[in-house]
Amino acid sequence: MLTIRVHTGGGLRPVCLVSNDSLGGYWKDREKHPIWIDLTSPPVADLKKLAGDCGFHPLTVEDVLNPEHQPKIDEYENYIFMVFRSVTGISDETTATGFNVGNCKTSRLAVYLGPGFLVTIHGIDAHAVDEVSTIVDSRDTAIDHHLDQVLHAIIDRMIDQVFPVISDMEDKIQEIEEKIFTASDKDVLPTILRTKRELLTLRRIMGSQREMLARLSRREDLPYIDPKTAVYFRDVLDHAARLEETCIVLTDLATSVAEAHLAVASNRINEVMKFLTIFSTIWMPLTFIVGVYGMNFHHMPELDVWWFYPLVWVLMIVIVVGMMFFFRRKKWL
What we know:
Layout: E1 2-7, E2 12-16, H1 20-28, E3 35-40, H2 44-54, H3 58-65, E4 72-75, E5 80-95, E6 102-114, E7 117-122, H4 127-139, H5 147-160, H6 162-179, H7 188-218, H8 227-292, H9 308-329
Parallel strand pairs: 3-7
Antiparallel strand pairs: 1-2, 1-3, 4-5, 5-6, 6-7
Helix pairs in contact: 4-5, 5-8, 6-7, 6-8, 7-8, 8-9
């Protein structure tokens, strides 16, 4: 679905694209009446035609069509091109299609920002764009040439929607930490390794976007970012930096939980091996005695003594009790 939002002096209004001529008219008049062109999962042919009509470089179209493209910012002669990525949740199944990365469900936003125009391209799950467009329309706000403020509002919401995801992952790590000392911990290690992989994905996304937001907040060679708006991008940069630091902390915590789980499992194995070793050690002299007198030799004088059989039983009981006492004294039991 292709939606054009045209500034008429009293706010942005949704205007349906009837023909390419209407788009061309809005595009030519963009310096007087800024336009916001918002595309939701556009067909490849429509996207390429729009890029051709607007004079966007073909390489940027390739970046838009590449679902696995990482966040970036490039400056061209008459506009800047950006790709943002946000994480909207964690999936139970590992996927590598669409905008998903591993178990992380991501939303991607491609942006063209220039004098008098803002072009946003995203999938159907871009809730931040929908929310901002609703707010702008409902408030009937005159944005004049400050489309960078609209961009800030979208990016701010995209970054903020990662916080609940991070919070859920932190709760998951705490639950796993409680399970490692219980008997039902068969799925602990796969879960913690999957969580760690998700955190590394989040950290990589936030790290690359932090560099972009740093450029936007400092307005390095970016003529279409107003100094007043750059201050707000600085706040978004702080949020992205905090998310990245939280990912680092949670990754270290996940590593510690995995190591603790392995240590607990190793300790349990050691306890089992100690029990089996002690059990085998106790049976060794008993097996020897039974083996000796189980041999089929005819000349074994003690076999003819009536009290020798109970004596052997007493001897074996004394050996067991003595070894148990010795092991306990050595604190092996």
